Amino acid sequence: YRLVGGPFREKQRVYWSHLATYRVRSAEILGKPKLRTMEDVANCAREAVDAGYTAFKTNIVFPGENPSMIGNMFAGSNDQNAPTDLVRHTVEQIGAMRQAVGPDIDICLDINYNFKTEGAINIGRALEPFDLFWMEIDNQDPESLAQLKSAQRTPICTGEQLLGLRQYQPYFRRHAMDTVKVDVQWQGFSQAKKVAELAEVYELNIAPHNYNSQLSSFQSLNLTAAVSNVRIMESDVDSSPWRDEITTQVPEIENGFMTIPDGPGWGCDLDEKAAKKYAFEG
């Protein structure tokens, strides 16, 4: 980041991503209790705050003996629709989490590609009383996203589905989002920086999309050090038990902030021996 004008900051605020989400399908692997009740979901929110985080992101989850979630993208149980009972359930979940952590913790909800514009509008309107940090949605049509943003008051985050300046610019011109998601690994560092700089022209802040390895975290931290317009950065806490073994360093996290690395390059390297140990064979 020093090679491109940084650092703009020495630490970066991060949010606990996929809170409760990964425990729907992988609680046993993670060594966490199954989500049987909505109180268990609320306890996940309390856990994030107890760990020092001031923001977290979740998905729509259904606790029970066989917990499930909305996550089939273009097809599945809801077929991209948001019927009344699903909206009501979403309100119950976010309400339980908000009640658990109080008014000062930032809550994000990621609905991915799971709803058409009409359904997303209904969900966004229903969640307005809970003062979300953002509702995150993937959408390939900037006009539809602009409609969503203008039809309700819940802030909108999007962009992880986009690649390169030409794909982002139509969204920027329509002011179709409040926060811009940028994935450093998918874009490449130089292109991600260009997207962030173009976002700055449109008075928009970015939020790096970061749900991969710790190498991904270091690369994303380098972006946040290299540009001025960063709102927050994604960070997965629940993960595979061997994730920290495959890099030579892991990020330093304290009170919901990651320290910008000061080592050469990204600040860490891939441990190739460990990576080979856990490589998928299939």
Could you give a quick summary of the protein structure above?
This protein has 282 residues and is an alpha/beta fold.
Uncertain segments are none
What fraction, in percent, of the residue positions are helical? 25-40%
CATH class: Alpha Beta
CATH superfamily: Enolase-like C-terminal domain
User: Within the largest sheet, what's the order of strands?
Assistant: 2-5-6-7-8-9
- Would you give the CATH topology? TIM Barrel
Secondary-structure arrangement, i.e. CATH architecture: Alpha-Beta Barrel
Q: What letter string, H or E per element, gives the SSE order?
A: EHHEEEHEHEHEHEHHEHEEEH
Distance between the termini: 37 Å
Q: What is the tally of beta strands?
A: 12
Give the biggest sheet.
6 strands, parallel
Structural account:
The chain is an alpha/beta fold and 282 residues long. The chain has one domain: Alpha-Beta Barrel (TIM Barrel), CATH 3.20.20. The chain has ten helices and twelve strands. The chain has a six-stranded parallel beta sheet. A four-stranded mixed beta sheet has the order 10-1-12-11, with helices on one face. It has a two-stranded antiparallel sheet with strand order 3-4. Strand 6, helix 5 and strand 7 form a beta-alpha-beta unit. Helix 2 packs parallel to helix 3 and helix 6 runs parallel beside helix 8. The termini are far apart.
